[in-house]
Design goal:
The structure is a single chain. The strands form 5 sheets. Strands 3-4-5 form a 3-stranded antiparallel beta sheet. The protein has a two-stranded antiparallel sheet with strand order 1-2. It has a two-stranded antiparallel sheet with strand order 6-7. The protein is of the alpha+beta class and 189 residues long. It folds into 3 domains: 32 residues, no CATH class; 68 residues, Phosphorylase Kinase, domain 1 (2-Layer Sandwich); 80 residues, no CATH class. Strand 3 and strand 4 form a beta hairpin. 31% of the residues lie in helices and 23% in strands. The protein is built from 6 helices and 11 strands. It binds iron/sulfur cluster.
């Protein structure tokens, strides 16, 4: 058999190899990749388009089982992207599993030359402490003309693109109540 004839009869044969119908075997191979995964719906974190993704994780959540993200794909039910992802979103799995990915809040103390891990509870309480202290220190009740402005120019706030419009609306309300004038979100509230 010539090489060209062999390829035509196998790989290019539309599911027929050497006279056998392999389409069912090919279909089963495709299904196996995500057959035992847990699906988690999320949002691509890279830009304001906020495409929907489905993250496939291996592991049945039982004790001593370490879950592993094995596949990320576009979410066909997502109203914004309808399953589409650009190259950054399509390679999301590599970022989720990358060894340099940050998994904990970090803090660099005044005068320190390195970052250290802290718990989420400590991070939240320390952020709250900094916000209170900074607002007390920088609050401006009236401008130079004596007009009431009630602003806190010592703080800026940025909402993330993975935050929903609703979350960004709420955080906008909170920082407005604090008098923070420098604020933005990718949701363009
Ligand atoms: S997949 Fe691409 S276009 Fe969609 S949110 Fe991610 S970076 Fe933006």
């Amino acid at each position: 058999m010539q090489r060209r004839t062999f390829l035509k009869a196998t790989a290019l044969g539309g599911g027929v190899a050497l006279g056998f119908d392999v389409s069912r075997a090919e279909a089963e191979m495709r299904a196996l990749k995500i057959a035992r995964t847990t699906e988690t719906r999320s949002i691509c974190p890279y830009c304001a388009v906020s495409c929907g993704v489905i993250i496939h994780t291996l592991g049945d959540k039982s004790k001593n089982v370490k879950p592993a993200v094995v596949h990320v794909e576009g979410d066909p039910d997502h109203p914004i992207s309808r399953g589409s992802l650009c190259p950054k979103g399509a390679t999301l799995r590599d970022d989720i599993t990358h060894k340099n990915r940050l998994l904990h809040p970090k803090v660099r103390r005044p005068g320190s030359d390195h970052w250290e891990d802290i718990s989420w509870d400590d991070a939240v309480s320390q952020i709250a402490r900094h916000i209170k202290d900074t607002r007390d220190r920088t609050f401006v009740a009236k401008n130079a003309k004596g007009q009431v402005v009630n602003r806190t120019p010592g703080i800026a706030m940025i909402g993330g693109c993975t935050d929903t419009n609703e979350f960004n609306y709420l955080q906008w309300k909170v920082v407005t109540a604090l008098g923070v004038p420098y604020r933005d979100t990718q949701a363009r509230v």
